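User: Here's a protein and a ligand (L-homoserine). What would the complex look like?
Assistant: Let me lay out the input and then the predicted complex.
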Amino acid sequence: MKPVEARPVRVALLGCGTVGAQVVRLLTEQAVDLAARVGAPIELAGIAVRRPNKHPGIPAELLTTDAAALVASDVDVVVEVIGGIEPARTLLGAALAAGKSVVTANKALLAEYGAELFTAADASGADLYFEASVAGAIPLLRPLRESLVGDRITRVTGIVNGTTNFILSAMAATGAGYRETLDEASRLGYAEADPTADVDGFDAASKAAILASLAFHSRVSAADVHREGIAAVSAADITAAKLLGRTVKLLAICERVTERDGSESVAVRVHPAMIPLSHPLASVGDAFNAVFVEADAAGQLMFYGRGAGGAPTASAVLGDLVAVARNRVIGGRAPRESAYAALPVRPMGQTPTRYHISLDVADRAGVLAQVAAVFAEHDVSIAAVRQEGRSVDASLVIVTHAASDAALRSTVDKVAGLPVVRKVVSVMRVEGEAP
Ligand code: HSE
């Protein structure tokens, strides 16, 4: 291959953990190919880390503890794989203000301060790329930002957290409860020592905010996302789902909702839901991620792959880095923030959802009528009922049509308090089929 002679594109790497180390490896191993693809060599100018003595195998002369000085030095691009809000926010703000392009994997920062970063990028003409922030290796943000930009996206439904998908898949396979499955996932290294961000849905909520912003050309932040984790999912919920030909997944759902007057809003939520086994997301097992996109002209699209891990995430970072470097060499820019639609975010209580409710009730005349009356009282229409007598008790399974989430919650609360209801076995939202 002919050597590339253009001036190198100098890169500062912030962070050298699981992902950063793989970025360094790929940059080194593929240097010749990357230079040919970019039209200039990509040169690693320095790596900011907290403890330089913890990185054997990385050339010591590249390591520094002074991230701010590295960002301020003569680098063209800053790649951030530290995570968290600070110091990433300050460092990337400084880079963009100085016209240095940024590649980041930081979903929390983008979901909270994305608008600030985009404003800084636009002011200086720098690029801001963040493919690795959602669903790791899966090319997803660039398809939403570029390939589908001529279409009208109506809904994005994703399994965007590998830890929770691993736990729910294991619960479905073994019949075990949440707590023991989480312990097993921690033992196998699938769950962090502190799994809160994953199991309580914070990680997925940040990703949902990023996806909704891109899909609906509106600013959506993590605080706009209704969030429920998987800690309350029980073995009984998983069994109830199986009996209905469904499975339980933690979904990030971003949808365009048309109001009665024709105006539009967006509803963005993360919660466990039962989906039919026939749904493309139902077969996504272990720690894999997948995102199902529905658009007017394109129809249904499915993106599937590894959502975490050093090398898969580094693949997405490198893809962005090549794009930024190419822009530096041949001119051009990443797409700017597109938030022109400015659709309002619909509160969860007003968002249409469907529920599955499984109850143990007394088996005598009039019980079904009493339960059904509560649904009627809240204007919630029942789509299906199954009742099975078991001596003095009966099992009653109800699936609703779509109604506002607030009405469904009130219905469930009132039904749970009926004297004829012995036990609420399972309550869960249902997604993935026509209402
Ligand atoms: N902790 C995330 C997961 C990966 O479990 O999928 C990083 O976003």
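Summary: Residues 163 and 283 are 16 Å apart (CA to CA).
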